[in-house]
Write a structure and sequence with these properties.
nine-stranded antiparallel beta sheet; alpha+beta; globular; 9 strands; 2 domains; 160 residues; SHC Adaptor Protein
Length: 160
């Protein structure tokens, strides 16, 4: 019995460790710790954005991604994710429901009736094309995080 319990515990520890490694390890850093070339790259990508916080995320393969958070001139939140070489992984901008295509909103409502979004972020590629949405909100008293494709055809519960 004890051996079985230890085996189960070892499995749980291994699975948790694997999940943490897949999710990446985040570390809050000062903006001054973000290389100047990356801060300049983010500013060129989103002119007028004011970046105020940053963190790094180290992926399981050792890749480091710099994440710069701030606000656009109109007050919407923004995050730019950059690789150390300056390549843009993606960037996210807060959207209101009015900025999201009706087909996407209808797909979310059909899949999750009663879902009430409190935050919507549009994920963009370097070319500024919307490649997806993240909906945070509540459903049946539970906090829900949905990843939705740009066309609304794929909707997945996101890891929190």
């Amino acid at each position: 019995m004890i051996g079985t319990r230890r085996s189960r515990m070892a499995l749980v520890v291994m699975l948790l460790g694997t999940a943490a490694a897949q999710a990446g390890v985040e570390r809050v850093v000062g903006l001054d710790e973000v290389p100047a070339a990356l801060r300049e790259r983010a500013a060129r990508l989103l002119p007028g954005a004011h970046f105020v916080t940053a963190n790094t995320e180290t992926e399981a393969d050792g890749t480091v991604i710099y994440e710069l958070q701030g606000r656009l001139a109109d007050g919407r939140g923004v995050e730019v994710d950059l690789f150390a070489n300056g390549e843009v992984e993606e960037f996210e901008i807060e959207f209101t429901a009015a900025l999201v295509p009706d087909a996407v909103l209808q797909a979310v409502a059909a899949r999750y009736p009663g879902f009430q979004p409190s935050l919507i972020e549009a994920t963009h590629s370097e070319t500024k094309k919307v490649i997806g949405y993240e909906f945070l909100g509540e459903l049946d008293g539970q906090e829900v995080d949905l990843d939705v494709s740009a066309d609304g055809r794929r909707i997945e519960l996101a890891d929190r």
